[in-house]
Amino acid sequence: MHKPRELTKDEFRACFVPPMTNVTGEAAAVDIWSYVDAIDLNALGLPSLNDVHYVYRDGEGRFDQVLIGTGRFNALLAVIVDRNRCAVHGHCVLDLNAEYGISGGHLKPVD
Predict the structure, then answer these.
(1) pLDDT at position 92
(2) pLDDT tens track of the chain, all 111 residues?
(3) How far, in Å, CA of 76 to CA of 67, rounded?
(4) Where are the alpha helices (DSSP H) in 1-111?
(5) How far is the C-alpha of 67 from the C-alpha of 55, rounded, in Å?
(6) 94 — alpha (psi -120 to 50), left (phi > 0) or beta?
(7) Domain boundaries in the chain?
């Protein structure tokens, strides 16, 4: 296992090509939990982690996005698995409030 690496937004976006396919029911190519255990949750502003909610595969079959629930409202930890290398590529926090302008259940424009 390598040291956890937080991906930039551009690095994260480079890890998927539409259409994304929900592969949550399939067996994982990589055990991500030792990687996840090494992540400093405080540095990410996450109080805790829950279970895997979804796993999505990019349209070229290169990367899986393992989406883990967190103790922060509308925030998921995305662990990116490089399927060709059978290794974790990195991680990022998906803050749905910030990304999609969700606030109090209403959508707002995102600049």
Answers:
(1) 97
(2) 579 999 999 999 999 899 999 999 998 889 999 999 999 999 999 999 999 999 999 999 999 999 999 999 999 999 999 999 999 999 999 998 887 776 655 544 444
(3) 6
(4) 9-13, 33-37, 41-44, 96-100
(5) 6
(6) beta
(7) 9-101
Closest to 44 (Cα-Cα) out of 89, 6, 73, 10: 6
SS3 label, residue 51: strand
Quick one: CA torsion of 19, 25, 28, 33, rounded to 10 degrees?
110
Per-residue pLDDT, 111:
45
* Residue closest to 77 by CA, chosen among 43, 17, 36, 27: 36
Question: Are the C-beta atoms of 95 and 102 separated by less than 8 Å?
Answer: no
Instruction: Read off the tokens for 99.
Output: 């990304």
Q: Please state, in angstroms and as integers, the Cα–Cα distance from residue 67 to each residue in 10, 79, 92, 109, following that order.
A: 18, 7, 10, 25
